[in-house]
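STRUCTURE REQUEST FORM
Protein name: non-specific serine/threonine protein kinase
Source organism: Salix purpurea
Requested output: structure tokens
Priority: standard
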Amino acid sequence: MHEITISTNDKPKLLSQLTSLLSEIGLNIQEAHAFSTVDSYSLDVFVVNNWEPEDTERLRSMLVKEIPKIEKKAQSESHAVYPVVEQDQIGISLVSNHMNIPADSIDVWEIDAYQLLFEKKIATGSSGDLYKGTFCSQDVAIKVLRGEHLDDKLQREFSQEVLIMRKVRHKNIVQFIGSCTRPPSLCIVTEFMSGGSMYDFLHKQKGSLNLQSLLRVAIDVSKGMNCLHQNHIIHRDLKSANLLMDENGVVKVADFGVARVQDQTGVMTAETGTYRWMAPEVIDHELYDHKADVFSFGIVLWELLTGELPYEHLSPLQAAVGVLQQGLRPSIPSHSHPELADLLKRCWQREPFLRPEFSEILELLQQLERTVADERDDKQKGKSPRRAVTTIRRERR
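Status: completed
Returned output:
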């Protein structure tokens, strides 16, 4: 493990920006502590792993290079007057092989239920309800398990969800704030995603995405899923309803109720997930691994492309039988970008080993995004002179 201490001028959202940076580098954050002074000085301390101890100096060099970019980006986006911190003004210290010894037995993630204020019910499920509320003046989502459903199976799933959400930190994964783990008050508290789900946007609001927006959403999802898989976590229920948007339109992976840490054998069993998005090996109760999430991502990508419900003319069970026994897949629109269509087909392969990893999917989508942006710029440059000529001709007439 490493302990990273970053000292710089304080500014809004500094901690979240530094957290995102460390996650993007590939670090797994175990602890984060932020301190600030009345004269606008900030000290942020992170305990991280997932980095080779003998490679500490390279990590330090990378942070020294990347942190000023955060300052410059924040200044350009907000037009604020915060000074851009130069490299020699940033103090960064790292301690290798940090041993994390708790000072006491208090669980920092445990929330007193009396500190939660419930505002309104957002959704109702088979075993619990979702509320919008506040915790320490922050808008939060509160997932509450109803007392009459608290059997052993549900309590195990609740414990697993808390364990997984505590394990991962990423800008494209809904942020875990805390939980109440003492029955009968069992609840999970996360950041509130004011933009709602991609499912509601696509199917209820009848929203549509142009290619550029589609790629942006797909890249967000791929980043979040790549982080999960790097931490050996299989989501097992990836679908548009479990993709939420914040107030800035950033999409984050949510709902880890059936997610699991992949065991040492690399395979899992049992029929878990939602039929319309479920991989054939999961439907058929075969052994499966993280590539089941890749299949589900292919269905999500098709949703983003069409705005339609997968196999909408079939019942969920009919769709599952078609996928398993007949090789049924949704029809890819003829107007789809060829590279996007090819990615869909690869994600839908019957054999899991033929499906790409999310690291490869992310790279392909980012490259396609750059290509589409270049094509758009070229098209705009090509049209501009023609518009000018048309105007001149009209004036002459």
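Reviewer notes: The mean pLDDT is 79. The chain is about 40% helix and 20% strand.
Form closed.
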